[in-house]
Design a protein that fits this description.
Structural class: alpha+beta
Radius of gyration: 25 Å
Keywords: Membrane, Signal, Transmembrane, Transmembrane helix
Shape: globular
Distance between the termini: 10 Å
Largest sheet: 8 strands, mixed
Strand content: 25-35%
Pfam families: LysM
Protein name: LysM domain-containing protein
InterPro entries: LysM (IPR018392), LysM_dom_sf (IPR036779)
Length: 431
Amino acid sequence: MAGVYGSVAAAVAVAVVMVAAMVSSLPCGVEAKTTIDPCSGSDSCSALLGYTLYADMKVSEVAALFLADPEALLAANALDFAAPGAAHRILPMGLFIRVPTRCACADGVRKSVSVRYAARPADTLATVADGVFAGLASADQIRNANALASADPDAPLDPGQKLVIPLPCVCFNSSDNNLPAVYLSYVVQVGDTVPVIAASYETTVTDIMNVNAMGSPVAAPGDILAIPLPACTSTFPKSASDHGLIVANGTYALTAGNCVQCSCGPGNLNLYCTPASLTGSCPSMQCSNSNVLLGNVSTRATSAGCNVSSCSYGGFVNGTITTSLSTGLQSRCPGPHQFPTLTEPPTTVNHDSTFLPPLSAPGPAEAGGAIPPPSSPSLQGGSFTLPKVSTANGPAGSVSEAPRMSKPHQILSSFIFCLLLYSQILIAMWL
């Protein structure tokens, strides 16, 4: 019997060695694909980066890494941004979050070029690209952006060396299938498939293929896909510092020096802005010639219907919060406005599922009515969910390529090594 088991173990060992030899012969320089959005001029637009934390990090640390505002980072993920000490909450390693960014036009394509990273001891281009920035930028892209001479991605960087980190983003005129949308740059993970990604964001395979100019519904680990998310757009004038503000459905955005919070959904895709409770020094938010404050709605029932007056946000212009008062007669008085649910920052990550549950698509709802205090959107604890909703069909982008992350290759090699070690143990036991 021992001879039989020994023969089997030896055969396993031989097979593992053969597979290992085959894997080691695979090209490591396979190109990762990134959807690009050609552009011209110097304008910028709002976009989202899909980022997976490489370690436990404070909200403020994640925000500093991407030059983002901590509260704005929380708002973009529908996390409670008004809670005391929210910026110092610790987020767990492996958590997937959305990072708001300004998508500039550089070298004829859309990209985020504002992030700077100071190298730490033992950092290499590979660890910065694949580890710190979770595959959002490749080692080659970082090297080219900084005109570095060394072609070795594993060569140590000088501690303190400042690096420009080019990050992928697209805008496609902030629309998808002629509907407002904000685009999320998503790094494909090991085990992902396009149908699974599409289902998790409540979109279609066809839409993802069209947006990303894909010839087939196949994406490899390390590819970066542009995912359209339904959003609420603004009509602020170009003179406003927050011109072009767009908010993904089910989330929030902060503007006007964090004096105003704007939300999208869940009932419809109409932007709704109210005072934020993050700072004690803000310009006036009262609509002129009225006693109605920003975001408030006054109603008065009459025999003819309901007289409705509302104060809406019109942008942040030269340090002034502009507002507009609208009045009208409606058939009935509107009910309270429904805000997107805020959750507490998570402390653990559920690894049983690659994706988090999406919100249902927006449906008809009534706006207006009594407005809760700014910090009163319903707050829930427990498991962490990100809203993931979308539309179908969209603009076609083009694709660029960069050396793919070597993580899948490393994982497979480690697995083979473990199999080889196990086979050797079997041989020692039975021979």
